[in-house]
Amino acid sequence: MTYLLLNTLKDCQSLRRRGLLLVVIIGLLCGQILAAQTTLFQSPTTAMLGTPGASEKGEWAFFSNPAGLAFLREPVATIGYQNDFNLKELSSATALLSYPTKALNISGGYLRSGFEHFNTQQLSLKFSRIMAPWLSLGVGFSHSMSALGASEQDKITTMDAGFRLMPNSSLVFGFYTINPAQTKWRKHEYESYYPSAVAASLCYLPHEDLNIEFSILKDIDNDPLASLKLEGKAANAIILRGTVSGKPLRLGFGAGLHLDSLHFDMAMNHHRALGFSSAFGISYYFTNLSRNK
């Protein structure tokens, strides 16, 4: 279904006036793609690679396990952009700000996906805290607004939560759930799909510069998705990432350039029928405002 819609859309792009046909196709296609992913934005360190990243820590944990945000020691401002299958209509952009305090980490974000005639906007607020040297917890709330053409907006409020365990220096276990209440888009008497999923990751760190992560993601309406991710430092400031996931089999590749206060991350994956998708992000760490000072 998605393959047929995508080909029709690409044919329509050659027309000067796409009009209502484009709106309808994009609406159907976005619904198909949303059913295959659990967040509106796929981060360049996890989801775009093909892994749920339940053991993730840092600013990009905003889009996976909120417990990973607790490890930020200074305020971080982040912007990101994602594109599916080289179609600008299937793109998303986000802006995040994380601020750690002595009590907990507070993170907020804005996201917009889609285009003029079909788009979704989301405001999120997430809280995380290190409870013990081996345990961190996180919870988040998101309010989403979706509009198709000039029609009335659909609105939905959801929550997500997770924890991250580190029993020793070489082993990490992470778990999170998205929309556990299984809330759905609702307009008048009709309901439509909104992701509800759980994810778990087991990460092994044989060396401080290398980690191997095995993950499972289970969406309520889809079969479980397993993935294996390898991440390591190739040089002092360069990080390489690779993931294999399925079914169907997909390969993801990514890289990061982490300077003192400025981090660049990017990733791409390939679907054998639909083509390439990509994401990149830039983060700035306000090191002069570190929580350690």
Task: Give me some keywords for this one.
293 residues; mainly beta; Porin; 14-stranded antiparallel beta barrel; two-stranded antiparallel ribbon; 2 helices
Walk me through the topology:
Elements: H1 2-12, H2 19-34, E1 76-84, E2 87-100, E3 105-115, E4 118-132, E5 135-148, E6 154-168, E7 171-178, E8 185-187, E9 190-192, E10 197-207, E11 210-219, E12 225-233, E13 238-246, E14 250-258, E15 262-271, E16 275-285
Antiparallel strand pairs: 1-2, 1-16, 2-3, 3-4, 4-5, 5-6, 6-7, 7-10, 8-9, 10-11, 11-12, 12-13, 13-14, 14-15, 15-16
Helix pairs in contact: 1-2
Structure write-up:
This protein has 293 residues and is mostly beta strands. The protein has a single domain (2-289), classed as Outer membrane protein transport protein (OMPP1/FadL/TodX) (Porin, Beta Barrel). 9% of the residues lie in helices and 55% in strands. It contains two helices and 16 strands. The strands form two sheets. Strands 1-2-3-4-5-6-7-10-11-12-13-14-15-16 form a 14-stranded antiparallel beta barrel. Strands 8-9 form a two-stranded antiparallel ribbon. Strand 5 (135-148) and strand 6 (154-168) form a beta hairpin. Helix 1 runs antiparallel to helix 2 (19-34). The radius of gyration is 19 Å and the shape is globular. The model is unreliable at 1-36 (pLDDT under 50).
| Percent helix range | under 10%
| String of helices and strands | HHEEEEEEEEEEEEEEEE
Are there runs of 5+ residues with pLDDT below 50, and where?
A: 1-36
| CATH-level-2 architecture | Beta Barrel
Strand line-up in the sheet with most strands: 1-2-3-4-5-6-7-10-11-12-13-14-15-16
State Rg.
Answer: 19 Å
In terms of DSSP E residues, the strand content is: over 45%
How many DSSP H or I helices? Answer: 2
CATH level 4 superfamily: Outer membrane protein transport protein (OMPP1/FadL/TodX)
The level 1 CATH classification is Mainly Beta
Whole-number average pLDDT? Answer: 84
Q: CATH topology, anyone?
A: Porin
Main sheet makeup: 14 strands, antiparallel, barrel
Distance between the termini: 55 Å
User: What's the oligomerization state?
Assistant: single chain
How many DSSP-defined strands?
Answer: 16
- The total number of structural domains is 1
Q: Which structural class is indicated by helix and strand composition?
A: mainly beta
Shape: globular
